[in-house]
Amino acid sequence: MSVEIVQNPHYAEVKKEADAWVAEILGYNEKQAARNSRADFAYMVSWWVGPHCDAETLRTLIDWNHWAFYWDDQFDEGHLKNDLYGAARNIIHMMSLLDDGHPGISKEEDPLGYIFQHVYRKIQKRASPVLQYRYKKYVEQYMLGVLAQVNSRKMDVETITIDEFMTFRRATVAAMPCMALLEYAFGIEIPEEVINHPSLQACQVVSVDLVAIHNDILSYKKDVLSGEDLSIINILRGQGHTLQEAIDGTGRMIDGCYQRWYEALLNMPSWGSKIDRQVYTYLEGIRNISLGCLLWSFWTGRYFTREEGRLVRETRKMRLPMPPPIGGSAVKVA
Protein backbone atom coordinates (compact mmCIF):
# COMPACT_ATOMS: atom_id res chain seq x y z
CA MET A 1 0.00 0.00 0.00
CA SER A 2 3.07 2.26 0.04
CA VAL A 3 3.40 2.12 -3.74
CA GLU A 4 2.73 5.01 -6.09
CA ILE A 5 -0.21 4.22 -8.36
CA VAL A 6 -1.29 5.98 -11.54
CA GLN A 7 -4.74 7.42 -12.12
CA ASN A 8 -6.48 6.56 -15.37
CA PRO A 9 -6.01 9.43 -17.86
CA HIS A 10 -9.69 9.32 -18.90
CA TYR A 11 -10.97 10.08 -15.37
CA ALA A 12 -12.20 13.66 -15.87
CA GLU A 13 -14.02 13.16 -19.16
CA VAL A 14 -15.62 9.84 -18.18
CA LYS A 15 -16.67 11.13 -14.76
CA LYS A 16 -18.65 13.92 -16.39
CA GLU A 17 -20.42 11.51 -18.75
CA ALA A 18 -21.10 8.88 -16.07
CA ASP A 19 -22.40 11.38 -13.53
CA ALA A 20 -24.79 12.92 -16.05
CA TRP A 21 -26.04 9.50 -17.16
CA VAL A 22 -26.75 8.14 -13.68
CA ALA A 23 -28.43 11.40 -12.66
CA GLU A 24 -30.73 11.10 -15.69
CA ILE A 25 -31.51 7.41 -15.06
CA LEU A 26 -32.21 7.89 -11.34
CA GLY A 27 -34.16 11.12 -11.91
CA TYR A 28 -31.94 13.29 -9.73
CA ASN A 29 -32.70 16.93 -9.20
CA GLU A 30 -29.87 19.48 -9.25
CA LYS A 31 -29.03 19.05 -5.56
CA GLN A 32 -28.98 15.25 -5.75
CA ALA A 33 -26.86 15.33 -8.90
CA ALA A 34 -24.36 17.65 -7.19
CA ARG A 35 -24.17 15.30 -4.21
CA ASN A 36 -23.47 12.35 -6.50
CA SER A 37 -20.76 14.33 -8.26
CA ARG A 38 -19.08 15.06 -4.91
CA ALA A 39 -19.22 11.37 -3.99
CA ASP A 40 -17.09 10.85 -7.11
CA PHE A 41 -17.06 7.09 -7.61
CA ALA A 42 -15.18 7.73 -10.85
CA TYR A 43 -12.22 8.94 -8.79
CA MET A 44 -12.06 5.64 -6.91
CA VAL A 45 -12.34 3.44 -9.99
CA SER A 46 -9.76 5.47 -11.94
CA TRP A 47 -7.15 4.48 -9.33
CA TRP A 48 -8.13 0.81 -9.52
CA VAL A 49 -7.53 0.42 -13.23
CA GLY A 50 -4.61 2.84 -13.61
CA PRO A 51 -3.55 3.34 -17.22
CA HIS A 52 -4.58 -0.20 -18.20
CA CYS A 53 -7.98 0.41 -19.81
CA ASP A 54 -9.68 2.73 -22.26
CA ALA A 55 -12.44 5.24 -21.60
CA GLU A 56 -15.27 2.88 -22.56
CA THR A 57 -14.11 0.20 -20.12
CA LEU A 58 -13.57 2.74 -17.36
CA ARG A 59 -17.11 3.95 -17.92
CA THR A 60 -18.48 0.41 -17.50
CA LEU A 61 -16.78 0.04 -14.12
CA ILE A 62 -17.97 3.46 -12.97
CA ASP A 63 -21.54 2.67 -13.98
CA TRP A 64 -21.34 -0.59 -11.99
CA ASN A 65 -20.13 1.26 -8.91
CA HIS A 66 -22.87 3.84 -9.23
CA TRP A 67 -25.30 0.94 -9.17
CA ALA A 68 -23.54 -0.81 -6.25
CA PHE A 69 -23.35 2.19 -3.93
CA TYR A 70 -26.92 3.33 -4.44
CA TRP A 71 -28.31 -0.21 -4.38
CA ASP A 72 -26.35 -0.89 -1.18
CA ASP A 73 -27.52 2.34 0.46
CA GLN A 74 -31.06 0.94 0.55
CA PHE A 75 -29.85 -1.69 3.03
CA ASP A 76 -27.50 0.57 5.00
CA GLU A 77 -29.71 3.55 5.65
CA GLY A 78 -32.72 3.22 3.37
CA HIS A 79 -36.10 1.54 3.36
CA LEU A 80 -34.68 -2.00 3.35
CA LYS A 81 -32.41 -1.50 6.38
CA ASN A 82 -34.67 -3.53 8.69
CA ASP A 83 -36.90 -5.25 6.13
CA LEU A 84 -35.53 -8.78 5.72
CA TYR A 85 -38.40 -9.95 3.51
CA GLY A 86 -38.20 -6.88 1.27
CA ALA A 87 -34.41 -7.21 1.06
CA ALA A 88 -34.67 -10.87 0.01
CA ARG A 89 -37.27 -10.06 -2.63
CA ASN A 90 -35.10 -7.25 -4.03
CA ILE A 91 -32.04 -9.54 -4.20
CA ILE A 92 -33.94 -12.33 -5.96
CA HIS A 93 -35.12 -9.77 -8.51
CA MET A 94 -31.60 -8.40 -9.07
CA MET A 95 -30.07 -11.85 -9.50
CA SER A 96 -32.76 -12.72 -12.05
CA LEU A 97 -31.51 -9.85 -14.22
CA LEU A 98 -28.28 -11.80 -14.80
CA ASP A 99 -30.26 -14.55 -16.52
CA ASP A 100 -29.59 -14.44 -20.26
CA GLY A 101 -33.27 -15.09 -20.91
CA HIS A 102 -34.53 -12.19 -18.82
CA PRO A 103 -36.21 -9.53 -20.98
CA GLY A 104 -34.80 -6.04 -21.02
CA ILE A 105 -35.96 -3.91 -18.11
CA SER A 106 -36.82 -0.26 -18.60
CA LYS A 107 -35.32 2.59 -16.63
CA GLU A 108 -38.84 3.82 -15.83
CA GLU A 109 -39.81 0.43 -14.36
CA ASP A 110 -36.68 -0.06 -12.24
CA PRO A 111 -33.83 2.48 -12.58
CA LEU A 112 -31.28 0.56 -10.49
CA GLY A 113 -32.22 -2.72 -12.15
CA TYR A 114 -31.81 -1.06 -15.53
CA ILE A 115 -28.26 0.09 -14.66
CA PHE A 116 -27.35 -3.36 -13.31
CA GLN A 117 -28.63 -5.20 -16.37
CA HIS A 118 -27.18 -2.64 -18.78
CA VAL A 119 -23.70 -3.01 -17.29
CA TYR A 120 -23.86 -6.81 -17.33
CA ARG A 121 -24.81 -6.87 -21.00
CA LYS A 122 -21.81 -4.66 -21.77
CA ILE A 123 -19.60 -7.07 -19.84
CA GLN A 124 -21.01 -10.03 -21.76
CA LYS A 125 -19.80 -8.60 -25.06
CA ARG A 126 -16.16 -9.12 -24.06
CA ALA A 127 -16.13 -11.56 -21.15
CA SER A 128 -15.79 -15.30 -21.74
CA PRO A 129 -18.34 -17.72 -20.23
CA VAL A 130 -15.81 -18.49 -17.47
CA LEU A 131 -15.43 -14.81 -16.53
CA GLN A 132 -19.21 -14.27 -16.74
CA TYR A 133 -19.65 -17.19 -14.33
CA ARG A 134 -17.06 -15.76 -11.95
CA TYR A 135 -18.71 -12.35 -12.00
CA LYS A 136 -22.14 -13.87 -11.27
CA LYS A 137 -20.71 -15.99 -8.44
CA TYR A 138 -19.06 -13.00 -6.78
CA VAL A 139 -22.18 -10.85 -7.18
CA GLU A 140 -24.32 -13.58 -5.63
CA GLN A 141 -21.93 -13.84 -2.66
CA TYR A 142 -22.09 -10.07 -2.23
CA MET A 143 -25.89 -9.95 -2.35
CA LEU A 144 -26.24 -12.78 0.13
CA GLY A 145 -23.81 -10.91 2.37
CA VAL A 146 -26.01 -7.82 2.17
CA LEU A 147 -29.01 -9.93 3.11
CA ALA A 148 -27.07 -11.27 6.12
CA GLN A 149 -26.24 -7.66 7.01
CA VAL A 150 -29.94 -6.80 7.22
CA ASN A 151 -30.49 -9.81 9.45
CA SER A 152 -27.40 -8.93 11.53
CA ARG A 153 -29.08 -5.87 13.00
CA LYS A 154 -30.58 -8.27 15.51
CA MET A 155 -27.04 -9.13 16.67
CA ASP A 156 -25.48 -7.73 19.84
CA VAL A 157 -22.09 -6.13 19.18
CA GLU A 158 -21.05 -7.12 22.70
CA THR A 159 -21.32 -10.84 21.91
CA ILE A 160 -19.77 -11.09 18.44
CA THR A 161 -16.02 -11.62 17.96
CA ILE A 162 -13.82 -9.81 15.47
CA ASP A 163 -13.18 -13.05 13.55
CA GLU A 164 -16.91 -13.75 13.31
CA PHE A 165 -17.56 -10.20 12.16
CA MET A 166 -14.82 -10.23 9.51
CA THR A 167 -16.14 -13.49 8.06
CA PHE A 168 -19.52 -11.82 7.70
CA ARG A 169 -18.14 -8.42 6.62
CA ARG A 170 -16.07 -9.75 3.71
CA ALA A 171 -19.23 -10.48 1.76
CA THR A 172 -20.77 -7.04 2.26
CA VAL A 173 -18.13 -4.66 0.87
CA ALA A 174 -18.65 -5.57 -2.84
CA ALA A 175 -14.91 -5.96 -3.44
CA MET A 176 -15.06 -9.47 -4.90
CA PRO A 177 -17.30 -8.56 -7.89
CA CYS A 178 -14.89 -5.70 -8.58
CA MET A 179 -12.06 -8.23 -8.85
CA ALA A 180 -13.91 -9.99 -11.66
CA LEU A 181 -14.50 -6.58 -13.26
CA LEU A 182 -10.75 -5.96 -13.17
CA GLU A 183 -10.12 -9.11 -15.20
CA TYR A 184 -12.63 -7.76 -17.72
CA ALA A 185 -10.98 -4.34 -17.70
CA PHE A 186 -7.43 -5.68 -18.06
CA GLY A 187 -8.34 -8.23 -20.75
CA ILE A 188 -7.09 -11.18 -18.69
CA GLU A 189 -8.68 -14.37 -17.42
CA ILE A 190 -7.08 -16.25 -14.54
CA PRO A 191 -7.70 -20.01 -14.91
CA GLU A 192 -10.02 -21.51 -12.31
CA GLU A 193 -7.34 -23.74 -10.78
CA VAL A 194 -5.13 -20.66 -10.32
CA ILE A 195 -7.80 -18.31 -8.96
CA ASN A 196 -8.72 -21.04 -6.45
CA HIS A 197 -5.14 -21.54 -5.23
CA PRO A 198 -4.89 -20.81 -1.47
CA SER A 199 -2.18 -18.16 -1.99
CA LEU A 200 -4.22 -16.19 -4.52
CA GLN A 201 -7.36 -16.52 -2.41
CA ALA A 202 -5.40 -15.27 0.62
CA CYS A 203 -4.46 -12.13 -1.36
CA GLN A 204 -8.11 -11.62 -2.31
CA VAL A 205 -9.13 -11.83 1.35
CA VAL A 206 -6.42 -9.33 2.35
CA SER A 207 -7.65 -6.86 -0.26
CA VAL A 208 -11.25 -7.24 0.94
CA ASP A 209 -10.24 -6.94 4.60
CA LEU A 210 -8.31 -3.73 3.94
CA VAL A 211 -11.34 -2.19 2.23
CA ALA A 212 -13.57 -3.22 5.16
CA ILE A 213 -11.19 -2.00 7.89
CA HIS A 214 -10.44 1.32 6.19
CA ASN A 215 -14.14 1.86 5.65
CA ASP A 216 -15.06 1.14 9.25
CA ILE A 217 -12.52 3.74 10.40
CA LEU A 218 -13.14 6.50 7.90
CA SER A 219 -16.93 6.15 7.79
CA TYR A 220 -17.25 5.96 11.60
CA LYS A 221 -18.49 9.53 11.97
CA LYS A 222 -21.19 8.91 9.35
CA ASP A 223 -22.11 5.59 11.04
CA VAL A 224 -22.44 7.16 14.51
CA LEU A 225 -24.66 9.96 13.25
CA SER A 226 -26.85 7.52 11.29
CA GLY A 227 -27.16 5.09 14.21
CA GLU A 228 -25.21 2.21 12.62
CA ASP A 229 -23.81 0.06 15.46
CA LEU A 230 -22.18 -2.92 13.78
CA SER A 231 -18.53 -2.18 12.99
CA ILE A 232 -15.06 -3.34 13.98
CA ILE A 233 -14.69 -0.28 16.18
CA ASN A 234 -17.89 -0.89 18.11
CA ILE A 235 -17.12 -4.59 18.56
CA LEU A 236 -13.81 -3.60 20.17
CA ARG A 237 -15.61 -0.99 22.28
CA GLY A 238 -18.04 -3.70 23.34
CA GLN A 239 -15.05 -5.69 24.60
CA GLY A 240 -14.23 -2.86 26.99
CA HIS A 241 -11.87 -0.72 24.89
CA THR A 242 -12.05 3.06 24.67
CA LEU A 243 -12.72 4.64 21.30
CA GLN A 244 -9.01 5.43 20.83
CA GLU A 245 -8.01 1.90 21.83
CA ALA A 246 -10.52 0.52 19.33
CA ILE A 247 -9.08 2.71 16.56
CA ASP A 248 -5.58 1.54 17.52
CA GLY A 249 -6.81 -2.05 17.33
CA THR A 250 -8.01 -1.57 13.77
CA GLY A 251 -4.55 -0.19 12.93
CA ARG A 252 -2.98 -3.41 14.17
CA MET A 253 -5.43 -5.36 12.01
CA ILE A 254 -4.17 -3.41 8.97
CA ASP A 255 -0.57 -4.31 9.87
CA GLY A 256 -1.67 -7.94 10.07
CA CYS A 257 -3.14 -7.68 6.56
CA TYR A 258 0.24 -6.57 5.19
CA GLN A 259 1.95 -9.55 6.83
CA ARG A 260 -0.63 -11.98 5.41
CA TRP A 261 -0.17 -10.49 1.93
CA TYR A 262 3.58 -11.08 1.88
CA GLU A 263 3.21 -14.56 3.37
CA ALA A 264 0.78 -15.42 0.56
CA LEU A 265 3.24 -14.15 -2.07
CA LEU A 266 6.02 -16.19 -0.47
CA ASN A 267 3.95 -19.36 -0.82
CA MET A 268 2.65 -18.64 -4.32
CA PRO A 269 3.86 -21.08 -7.00
CA SER A 270 4.72 -20.30 -10.60
CA TRP A 271 2.32 -21.39 -13.33
CA GLY A 272 4.58 -20.49 -16.24
CA SER A 273 5.43 -17.11 -17.71
CA LYS A 274 2.15 -16.53 -19.57
CA ILE A 275 -0.11 -17.15 -16.57
CA ASP A 276 2.34 -15.55 -14.14
CA ARG A 277 2.12 -12.27 -16.06
CA GLN A 278 -1.67 -12.33 -15.74
CA VAL A 279 -1.43 -13.19 -12.04
CA TYR A 280 0.97 -10.29 -11.45
CA THR A 281 -1.42 -7.90 -13.24
CA TYR A 282 -4.31 -9.28 -11.21
CA LEU A 283 -2.46 -8.91 -7.90
CA GLU A 284 -1.56 -5.35 -8.76
CA GLY A 285 -5.21 -4.67 -9.54
CA ILE A 286 -6.69 -6.16 -6.38
CA ARG A 287 -4.13 -4.29 -4.29
CA ASN A 288 -5.14 -1.10 -6.09
CA ILE A 289 -8.79 -1.79 -5.21
CA SER A 290 -7.79 -1.43 -1.56
CA LEU A 291 -5.52 1.55 -2.16
CA GLY A 292 -7.97 3.29 -4.51
CA CYS A 293 -10.78 2.91 -1.95
CA LEU A 294 -8.51 4.43 0.69
CA LEU A 295 -7.54 7.42 -1.47
CA TRP A 296 -11.19 7.90 -2.41
CA SER A 297 -12.28 7.86 1.25
CA PHE A 298 -10.28 11.04 1.88
CA TRP A 299 -11.62 12.61 -1.32
CA THR A 300 -15.30 11.72 -1.42
CA GLY A 301 -17.96 13.91 0.11
CA ARG A 302 -19.62 10.87 1.72
CA TYR A 303 -17.37 10.96 4.80
CA PHE A 304 -15.59 14.34 4.90
CA THR A 305 -15.42 17.64 3.16
CA ARG A 306 -12.43 17.72 0.81
CA GLU A 307 -10.51 19.90 3.29
CA GLU A 308 -11.32 17.56 6.19
CA GLY A 309 -10.21 14.57 4.13
CA ARG A 310 -6.94 16.26 3.24
CA LEU A 311 -6.23 17.06 6.90
CA VAL A 312 -7.08 13.54 8.07
CA ARG A 313 -4.74 12.08 5.47
CA GLU A 314 -1.91 14.48 6.34
CA THR A 315 -2.22 14.47 10.13
CA ARG A 316 -3.73 10.98 10.69
CA LYS A 317 -5.99 12.60 13.24
CA MET A 318 -9.78 12.52 12.92
CA ARG A 319 -12.37 14.46 14.90
CA LEU A 320 -15.23 12.10 15.74
CA PRO A 321 -18.63 12.44 17.38
CA MET A 322 -18.80 11.09 20.91
CA PRO A 323 -20.41 7.70 20.27
CA PRO A 324 -23.25 6.50 22.48
CA PRO A 325 -22.59 3.65 24.91
CA ILE A 326 -22.76 0.25 23.23
CA GLY A 327 -26.46 -0.55 23.11
CA GLY A 328 -27.38 3.12 23.68
CA SER A 329 -28.91 5.60 21.30
CA ALA A 330 -27.96 9.17 22.25
CA VAL A 331 -25.34 10.84 20.04
CA LYS A 332 -23.43 13.86 21.27
CA VAL A 333 -21.03 15.58 18.86
CA ALA A 334 -17.68 16.20 20.53
Automatic annotation (TrEMBL):
<keyword id="KW-0479">Metal-binding</keyword>
<dbReference type="GO" id="GO:0010333">
    <property type="term" value="F:terpene synthase activity"/>
</dbReference>
<comment type="similarity">
    <text>Belongs to the terpene synthase family.</text>
</comment>
<dbReference type="InterPro" id="IPR034686">
    <property type="entry name" value="Terpene_cyclase-like_2"/>
</dbReference>
<keyword id="KW-0456">Lyase</keyword>
<keyword id="KW-0460">Magnesium</keyword>
<protein>
    <recommendedName>
        <fullName>Terpene synthase</fullName>
        <ecNumber>4.2.3.-</ecNumber>
    </recommendedName>
</protein>
<dbReference type="GO" id="GO:0046872">
    <property type="term" value="F:metal ion binding"/>
</dbReference>
<dbReference type="Pfam" id="PF19086">
    <property type="entry name" value="Terpene_syn_C_2"/>
</dbReference>
<dbReference type="GO" id="GO:0008299">
    <property type="term" value="P:isoprenoid biosynthetic process"/>
</dbReference>
<dbReference type="InterPro" id="IPR008949">
    <property type="entry name" value="Isoprenoid_synthase_dom_sf"/>
</dbReference>
